[in-house]
Amino acid sequence: MTKAHYFKLNKTPLLLAVVSLAFYIAFAYDLERTDTIKLLMLYAGLFFLFYKILQLAKHDFKLLTWLAFLFRAVFILAIPNLSQDFYRFIWDGRMIIEGINPYLFTPESFIAKNTFPIAQAQELYNGMGLLSASHFTNYPPLNQICFVIAGLFAGKNILGSVIVLRFLIIAADFGTLYFGKRLLEKLKLPGHNIFWYILNPFIIIEMTGNLHFESVMIFFLVVCLYLILLGKWHWAAITFACSVSIKLIPLIFLPLLYQKLGLKKSIVFYGIVATVTLFLFAPFYNSTFINNYAETVGLWFQNFEFNASLYYIAREIGYFFRGYNEIAIIGKYTAIVVFLFVLIMALARKNKTTKQLITAMLLSLTFYYFTTTTVHPWYIATLLFLSIFTRFRFALVWSFMVILSYTAYIQADYQENIWAIALEYIIVFSVFLYELTKKRYTFEDKLT
């Protein structure tokens, strides 16, 4: 193929990439969370361009890889505009550098006493908001190490800390690109499927843009899955523990590994995961650590609510019969139901091959998100990643529809738009149920 012919074939995706680049620049530097109409229009445009680029250039791995880097590079100097969590990340990292255990003190406990234990304490406190500032940190130890790295390289500059955190996330994404492609090829699936994750505007915006560390968690998870496929399950257990030590959510997958590994290997695998996880938590341990951490994690089940689906229906039923919000009771029973569902998936469903295992992981996590009280947009990243190894593409649809949850910020005082949430879940549930019943359906069929 001549260079002229190659350029002719790739001219359209390159033009689409230029338009995408302009949209990402607008997203990063000219958008507020309260600009809902602009947010929705930019996101819809980016998603359409993303779909068309993959449709036209899905076999051009080199081009797509460069675009994945270029679109992320746009955000390097930008302060996150859709999430304020990064202020707490910076706070925790600087606390550890000062020799203060972030699991034992809330930011509010210092500011209320007019005490400023770290550089830019007041600015970080104001940025993270009262909800975060009034609770103990819930970020696991390996995540805290990422925050420490930002503090070491930029201990007195917020933008500098943001840049360091962003480079860590970008590095994790490209690690996922490498191992994800290899895992797909080992499973005899199209290697370009990895770009449904890597090039997805949702991933670029929520991870690189808004600094959510699901990217790092997913990197360790894909390495774990790859090592399991190679039979190196001891090393896989270590990487699984690292994934848990970034975000706790992979713990839901532990029972599902039983069939794949067998009884003896499973026991050793679980033992390694527990040992490595406890080792990583050990430097932060003291007599009050467990109570503080358990209390903080429990808030996600019994206090917080955002962008939920079945829970909101249960909540309305509770209002009808009891006259008040039953979140504490509903959250407790939901956790039990999810645990039982995962056990059923682990024991009653066939999960012996890697493809079957990943599908079980996808369905188990989906059930959890369909029933839980809180589904922040970035939570969908794990579903999206797992889905590329399966026949299911509802998570791809969800990664588009989840932007509707940001309509809650159309006003500064924050109030969810229940109609927008209803539209989001009607579409997501419809696609999910369709895919459950149409076993031969694949999203790639729509690209030909």
Oligomeric category: single chain
In round numbers, the mean pLDDT is 92
Number of strands: 0
Share in helix: 55-70%
SSE arrangement, N to C? HHHHHHHHHHHHHHHHHHHHH
How would you explain this protein's 3D organization?
The protein has 448 residues and is an all-alpha fold. The chain contains 21 helices and no strands. It is globular and about 60 Å long.
Q: Secondary structure elements and their pairing?
A:
Elements: H1 3-29, H2 36-57, H3 61-73, H4 85-97, H5 107-111, H6 121-133, H7 141-153, H8 158-186, H9 195-198, H10 201-209, H11 214-230, H12 233-244, H13 257-261, H14 263-281, H15 289-302, H16 310-322, H17 327-348, H18 354-371, H19 380-387, H20 394-401, H21 418-437
Helix pairs in contact: 1-2, 4-6, 4-7, 7-8, 8-11, 11-12, 12-14, 17-18, 18-19, 19-20, 20-21
